[in-house]
Amino acid sequence: MEPIAPEIERYAEEHTTPEPAHLVALAEETRTATQLPQMMVGRVEGRLLKFLVGALGARRVLEIGTFTGYSALSMAEALPPDGRIVTCEIDEHHASIARRHIAASPYADRIEVRLGPAIDTIATLDGPFDFVFIDADKTSYAAYYEAVLPLLSDDGLIAVDNVLWMGQVLDDTDQSPDTRAIVDFNRRVAGDDRVECVLLTVRDGVLLVRRRR
Ligand SMILES: C[S@@+](CC[C@H](N)C(=O)[O-])C[C@H]1O[C@@H](n2cnc3c(N)ncnc32)[C@H](O)[C@@H]1O
Fold first, then answer.
1. Residue partners of 6: CB distance under 8 A and separation at least 6
2. Ligand 1 pocket test: which of 40, 88, 90, 97 has the largest number of ligand atoms within 8 Å of its C-beta?
3. Radius of gyration (C-alpha) of the chain in whole angstroms
4. In DSSP terms, which residues pair with 211 in a beta bridge?
5. Which mutation among 36, 89, 148, 166 tests ligand 1's pocket best, with the greatest number of atoms within 8 A of CB?
6. Torsions phi, psi of 170, nearest 5?
7. Distance of CA 23 to the CA centre of its chain
8. Fewer beta carbons within 10 Å, N or C terminal of the chain?
9. Is the CB of 85 under 6 A from ligand 1?
């Protein structure tokens, strides 16, 4: 099941500001040099991430799941010159593509790719982070959430990708670990008194979370 009709996706993309040339080039290489290019957030969600980082006035951003760097480079566009993104990636091939495109972009000084299991990298980081984007292995979403919540600034925001899992969250017969992990995660956050959240039906679902006020 596709959560959003393809024609609506196309319409949304056509009515969203195009990404800059360096992201078009990155997306093109990602399509030819990786096995799952659809992991990239793409134009609409990439522009949304830039909007959120800019609207928050975020200076410190943490990303969990770099892939080839499309989302990190999208968010970097909205950072002030002294803003920084730490982005975590476990796969050397993905990280090497990301590092090359980041180095060639106008944001080389703002993005640091950390290679290794994200949960280990997070344990080495000091907060606060103004914006956290969770987009790595789905079975670790709950662990990432608990690890980053204490690192979030008072007005900070967490965005979590793929929370609709192509509509599989509605299928109780789907016992795959990824589907069950996302269903459990969404239920856990919706019932967490520490936070408020909104699940956006953008692309494959984006959950926004912040501390309850
Ligand atoms: C959905 S992709 C991220 C897409 C990226 N945000 C973008 O828009 O281009 C998920 C990435 O998380 C990485 N990953 C998976 N498990 C990980 C882990 N335990 N620690 C760090 N990265 C991990 C994968 O190698 C993959 O590159």
1. none
2. 90
3. 16
4. 195
5. 89
6. -90, -10
7. 16
8. C
9. no
Q: What is the pLDDT of residue 213?
A: 87
Is the Cβ atom of 89 under 6 angstroms away from ligand 1? Answer: yes
Helix locations, the chain, DSSP H? 6-14, 21-33, 42-56, 70-76, 92-104, 118-123, 141-148, 177-190
Task: Report whether 136 contacts 143 (CB < 8 A).
Answer: no
Ligand 1, atom 26: closest residue by C-alpha: 67
Mean pLDDT by 10 residues, the chain (213 residues): 87 97 97 94 97 98 98 98 98 97 97 98 97 98 98 98 97 97 98 98 97 93
- Ligand 1 atom nearest to CA at 63: 6
For residue 48, the Cα-to-chain-centroid distance in whole angstroms is: 11
- b/e string for 39-77 if b means 16 or more Cβ within 10 A? bbbbbbbbbbbbebbeebebbbbbbbbbbbbbbbbbbbb
